[in-house]
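Page 42, continued from yesterday. The earlier attempt failed because a stray header line got pasted into the input along with the sequence. Redoing it now with the clean sequence only.
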Amino acid sequence: MLAACVWSALRAAPAYAQADAPKLELRERWVYYSTNLLVDKNVDTMETVMRRAAKADYNGVMLADSKFGRLKQMPPRYFANAQRVRKLADELNLKLVPAVFPLGYSEAILSQDPNLAEALPVRDALFVVKGGEARLVAAPQVSLPGGDFANLTQWTWKDDTVAADQGAARVTDPNGKNARLTQKLAVRPFRQYHVSVRIKTQDFKGTPEIKVLAASDPKSLNFASLGVKPTQDWTEHHIVFNSLDHEQVSLYLGCWDGRTGSLWFDDARIEEVGLLNVVRRAGAPLAVRRDGAAAEDPPLVEGKDFQPITDPRMGVTPWPGSYEVWHQPPTIKTNLPDGTRLRVSYFHAITVYHHQVMICPSEPRTSELLAEQAQRVHEAFAAPDYFMSHDEIRVLNWDKACADRQLDAGAILAENVKTCTDILRKLNPGGDVYVWSDMFDPHHNAHANYYLVRGDLTGSWQGLGKNVNIVLWHHAQRDPSMRFFAQRGHRMLIAGYYDANPQKMRDWLDSARQLAAQRKAGPGEQPIIGAMYTTWRNNYDDLETFAAIVDEYRK
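This time it went through. Structure tokens are written below.
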């Protein structure tokens, strides 16, 4: 009731911008909704939000569900719930826009084939046979001086906010100051490394991190989140990184955003590892050779000279599509004599932040799975429009499937988004297609040196037909982003809110008005066609307030 009263009051408020500013058409007014339709209770909750949305004059729901990547595994109950949502949307005159093609956050699709993960290369890692197993032997063995924290002066340097505390390093009440220790380390190029450290906290407000930066440039080689709790007893945390083409790195332990409370580090270690999350497919080949073999000598034969190699925990633990940052990697089973030295080259999956994993867009099987997903979602919802979920693609263009194409990263992504658009056009002729803006925006993520992407993402937008609608979400770059896509002839929808003050949506709408005025857009010609209430936390407290703000700017 309170939310409805607020909405009514705001609808009556005077316009925020100048009286002579053009009104916006904003014919698409959506709510972003992410859920799991397998759970009946979730549909009850969704119905409540949909009814509120319809009453507040929204006319669409962008529907995201990780189960869209595994519909062939869903029981009849799932599809009964999907039908319930469809009927409710029809009743309320809300257009459903399902989200398909999870390029970037690909775990749901990867649950069907974990080996399709985009993978980083390891080259000529040394394994030595002993007792029927070949295990990795680091050459030379990497070590971490000062890792026992008995003497903090062994570290290359540390911030003054880090102090010794009974054989550990302690950070207390940093109040926004950096609190870091760093050590420069020699590594071998294109090798896989594991770092572990024990961490304790007490009422700590901040984000403890392990960062590995290449010495030759400030590029980070790892991005996985540690998941440290504000208060926890000593707990071991892990990161894994690939050295790529670097011979020296700087390892950082610490916190960049700490405020209050205490944080301790102890027992930090680094080791080279092999075959962790090893990916097995034609586009990510594995080769085992005798150490010292000539380049023209054939590799050893899998299934003959050694048993088939897999990592049984890769992409399936704790559930299909889930990739662990660290676990004990597999060894190579073989009857080769003890002491045989082997050089092993392979590709491995890598996680980003909270277990995000990217699918390889260059594998033919990937396109098959994406087409299958679209077909199954369309059969379940028969939606008028669809949303392509290309978003924050942080690992790309390293495996053989990508490298053999001899394309830059932007061209690979451009071809993929065109393929995905064609799938939807064939499946749903006449329907609208939408996509997130970030990976196709030179003012956002479409540039060089983006996370673990090899090459330059510039030009990715060349794969977008003008009839693909762009969903903008980078508030800080809204003006140049709007101009860029408008010049290309795209229509745009603004994804606002993001669990912040709903009044920030006015910034977006003022920019949209300015763009419409500059282009002297007539009826039906405005490049900004809509707005979406976008929440990652399923927070719909401001649904009506957001709608009222949007309504102020509409005709």
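Notes: Confidence is low (pLDDT under 50) at residues 1-17.
Reminder to self: strip header lines before submitting.
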